[in-house]
Amino acid sequence: MSKTISYLLLFSNVLLLVAGQILFKWGLQKAGGLQWARIALSPSIWSGLTLYGLATLLWFAVLTRLPLSVAYPMQSTAYVLGLLAAWFIFDESLSATKLVGCAVILVGVYLIAK
């Protein structure tokens, strides 16, 4: 399989992980925190778990196509996307320090991918 497809699978994995985290956050907010009975019945939580399951299946495909030493560090782009999603969706703070941290992560991913 081509390298392009391999990286598309990896990027899809990252997107599913971030979407799952967003759904977890949403579900926990709606449940009022760690209210286990509410969490167990939360469609958002179950949807997030489903996305995590799909992300894991994609990850298996990625691991058969890319070296772990490349794929795993590249998954750290999820941190950047998660931070941006938290800012955009949940109105969480986005400071200059966080942006510099994102830049450091992206530079690291670039260097590993070379």
Automatic annotation (TrEMBL):
Membrane topology according to the record: Multi-pass membrane protein
GO cellular component: plasma membrane
GO MF entry, a single one: transmembrane transporter activity
Taxonomy, superkingdom: Bacteria
SUPFAM superfamilies xref list: Multidrug resistance efflux transporter EmrE (SSF103481)
Domain EamA: 13-112
Stored InterPro entries: EamA_dom, EmrE-like, Small_drug/metabolite_transptr
Residue ranges of the TM segments: 7-24, 44-63, 70-90, 96-113
Family from the record: Belongs to the EamA transporter family.
UniProt-recorded name of the protein: EamA domain-containing protein
Organism: Paenibacillus curdlanolyticus YK9
